[in-house]
Amino acid sequence: MKTFLLIFLMMVVTFGVRYPVLALVGRYELPGSVKRALRFVPVAVLSALCAPMVLIQQGQWDISFSNAYLVASVFAILVAWRSRHLLLTIVAGLLVFALLKVSGFG
């Protein structure tokens, strides 16, 4: 019962924080500078989620060529930069990572 109550209260807090902002945005026009800034939110959030997984291995910073996660990520970033194709970027990054893991590189 405590778990259900905790989940319900987390839902209430999350909804209470987000709903007023969404309700106001629907009623008022945002300034152009805010709209431009909001375009970077998905990239910033994805970077914040991925960076620790890529750069920290077994609780330690691992910024070296022996880090398969880092090598595959850099390769995927280069593919994304050159091709601007999401599926190609994902497949290329996964292939490089798999090849590195199978070869015992990282």
Layout of secondary structure:
Elements: H1 2-27, H2 32-38, H3 41-55, E1 56-57, E2 60-61, H4 68-83, H5 86-102
Antiparallel strand pairs: 1-2
Account of the 3D structure:
This protein is mainly alpha-helical and 106 residues long. It has one domain (2-102). It is built from five helices and two strands, in the order αααββαα. It has helices at 2-27, 32-38, 41-55, 68-83, 86-102, and strands at 56-57, 60-61. Strands 1-2 form a two-stranded antiparallel ribbon. β1 (56-57) and β2 (60-61) form a beta hairpin. The longest helix has 26 residues, at 2-27. The protein is flat, with a radius of gyration of 20 Å. The model has no long low-confidence stretch (mean pLDDT 93).
Mean pLDDT: 93
In helices, the fraction of residues equals over 70%
Radius of gyration: 20 Å
Ranges where pLDDT stays below 50 over 5 or more residues in a row are: none
Given the helix and strand composition, which structural class is it? Answer: mainly alpha
Structural shape: flat
As an assembly, this protein is: single chain
Strand content: under 5%
How far the N terminus sits from the C terminus, by CA atoms, comes to 45 Å
Number of strands: 2
Order of helices and strands: HHHEEHH
Number of helices: 5
- The figure for the number of domains is 1
Q: Output the strand order for the largest sheet.
A: 1-2
Largest sheet: 2 strands, antiparallel
